[in-house]
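To whoever is on call:

I kicked off a structure prediction for a single chain this morning and the downstream step that reads the tokens threw a length-mismatch warning. I double-checked the sequence; it's 335 residues and nothing unusual in it as far as I can see. Pasting both halves so you can look.
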Amino acid sequence: MTKTITKLALIASVALNIHAKAQTTITFDTFTLSPNSYYQNNNGDDFSEGGATFQYGWATSWNGWESGSAYTNLNDTVNGTYTNLYGCIPGVAFGGNNYATVQTGAVISFSNSTTAVNGFYITNTTYAWKEIKNGGFGRKFGDTTGTKSGTSIPQGHYPDWFKVLVKGYRGGNMLTDSIEFYLADYRAAGTSNDYVVKNWQFVNCAPLGQVDSITFVMKSSDNNAFGMKTPAFFSIDNFITQTTVGIEELSTVSNITLFPNPTSQHLFLNFESHTSNDLSIHLFDITGKRLLYQNIQSNIGSNQLNLNVEHLESGIYFIEMADGISAKKIKFIKL
């Protein structure tokens, strides 16, 4: 059976409520700290807030913070050395008093298996920002004097960058999608395009969908034989999660595919239905905003819907199929 939907029906007022969603914003302000201080636990105990557990590691061998995340309210924007691991370059939290500083490889796990990370605010630490701007152990990004060591490339022309990747896990397996955010980027031509993040900026993690946990991987263009020379730290605040209550993976249909993907005009939604069932088809943008929906009646066996998406702007979108009890969401790209 083939059905053609020339344009999904626009939601005029109240969006269809398939399942209840609870949103939580983790501000780190539930933790008590003295002014200008940070979390320090010699036992290496993790800490939790709002259904999220932040991994924390302490090295007894050298008596220092070894891995994970640490909440802090440190306001040091001057000390750009390894003795200031916790401070963020804005000098204040995005909101409230506390924020968290995170090392590469840190893990955040969730108590509810139906958790999605909407996003969080991010910025550079003072340590990383100063190293990128001034040099030190690592190279000064965008230096206009001399040449990059061992090459004839002028330093000001070398495409330096510093970024963090957010990777999700579901059922213990790493998802293929990841979120990429540049904390510094000198790749574009012309020094006027160079930047190092110095304020709080939002990282949208909605494309990851539901996750059991996330981890962070930091990368830089400045490396040596032992690894990255740019300090592998960043700061976060207002970590927003969304828990879907009572939702299960869609069980009445299987073999769901979208073709072609990417697409510029028509998108074919193919699936096998185990019952004759009322289904709702929803369209979301990358921010998680529900844009459109259509109700259909599926037949037992093969089903195909021809969706006309030519009116959408280029970008990443999601199609969600739901039967009132469970749902399935699939990503596609509009060219």
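Update from on-call: the warning came from a stale cache, not from the record. Cleared it. Sanity check on the structure: Residues 103 and 225 are 20 Å apart (CA to CA).
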